[in-house]
């Protein structure tokens, strides 16, 4: 896609041939999504995540239409806003989706400035996460529970406990 600007204004959006560099046709609009951290599993792992998604949909009693839409998007490797919240579906157990802490070296020293403030912020963030989840489920959306996406406060304390 080629964007032609006039100052800060997009003048035209064109699809072009990267070999010849010639414009093929003009588009009326384009939707640009932010970069994504999602890497779709290879073909050898597709049956695993498909089975896991079907099992999860039944277990969480997702609306069949919502589950089918999610399945189709993931199956066709279509990135969509919020796809990061589906990452655990693409890498089912026994694979583990890693957290920030998994990337830290073993001898790292972590400092928690204002522990009371951090705790208050954690409680506020967790409340917002659960409220958003409850609102989404009330609308019938196919969503994973927060516990499958985020470290809760107890898991975070357990992760940080052995650190100096």
Topology (elements, then pairings):
Elements: E1 2-6, E2 9-16, E3 23-27, H1 46-59, H2 64-75, H3 87-90, H4 115-138, H5 153-160
Antiparallel strand pairs: 1-2, 2-3
Keywords: ATP-binding, Nucleotide-binding
Pfam families: UvrB_inter
Protein name: UvrB interaction domain-containing protein
The helix content, as a percent range, equals 25-40%
Overall domain count: 3
N-to-C terminal Cα separation, in Å?
50 Å
Shape: extended
Write a brief structural summary.
This protein is an alpha+beta fold and 164 residues long.
Q: Key terms for this structure?
A:
5 helices, 164 residues, alpha+beta, 3 domains, 3-stranded antiparallel sheet, single chain, 11% strand, extended, 3 strands
Plain-language structure description:
With 164 residues, the chain is α+β, with helices and mostly antiparallel strands. The chain folds into three domains: 1-32, no CATH class; 38-97, no CATH class; 104-164. It contains five helices and three strands. It has helices at residues 46-59, 64-75, 87-90, 115-138, 153-160; strands at residues 2-6, 9-16, 23-27. The chain has a three-stranded antiparallel sheet, with no helix packed on it. A hairpin with a 6-residue loop joins strand 2 (9-16) and strand 3. The N and C termini lie far apart (50 Å).
